Amino acid sequence: MNRTLNIGIRAHDLPKQPLGSLVNDVADRGLGSVQLALNKSFDFDTRPGTLNPGMAHLVGTAFRRRDIQISVLGCYANIIHPDPDERFSALSRFKEHIRYSRDFGCGIVGTETGNVNPDIIYTEENFHEEPFQEVLSSVRELVDEAEKFGVIVGIEPGVNHPIHSPRTMKRLLDETRSNNLQVIFDPVNLLTADNHERQDKILSEAFSLWGDRIAVIHAKDFTIDDGRIVPAPVGKGLMNYKFVLEHLSPHINIILDETSPEHVEDAVRFLNSC
Prior knowledge:
This protein has helices at about 20-30, 40, 55-65, 85-100, 130-150, 165-175, 200-210, 240-245, 265-274, and strands spanning about 5-10, 35, 70-75, 110, 150-155, 180-185, 215-220, 220-225, 230, 255.
């Protein structure tokens, strides 16, 4: 492709460290952006009622000083948690991230779509109509809040969740009916040991159905071991990144995901060589 890509990293894939040290760690690796989950990178209390503009400005300014974009404010939440109190708390925390997102200098708050179980595990119970409707209800609630503040809700589909395929993601976009809902696309999340050999077809369907709604890409890799997908460093597995990169808009944020610090340099080199 012979172009320099816009590559960043999930900040919590680097060691937990003070804010200034984290910013320098990201910058010194030549990365231009982060997906920042506050409670995973710092010892921050992010329960509802704890975020505020001052904290957000402090964090955002530290990254801006090194020309690092907070491309996604990660708010990992089970938005269909079976316990109503837990679900209410998860949605309240996400809404608070939405309200202060712009103070961080960030326009996207992202999450996956949860699980019918308290723990996020693979179960085909997620694939029924009722979980989809619960996701739709929660996402509409979050998007309503996002529209008030000019922020994007980024939803990441994956086989461990009710939004588990290109078509269920398309349905969520269609039935939410708001451009404040966009996609955080991790191609590996749509693959299994059973379907990975058809990855180009699956990814083609995703790009065809909602390629114009992809706001951020996650980059990780995988191999197959004993009939299971297992993580691998980017460029050392079976993910067809040449195919993926050919379908991306210029300058889109590519966030290294589940990439350990010692593999960052090789991952960046590999992606830029595709």
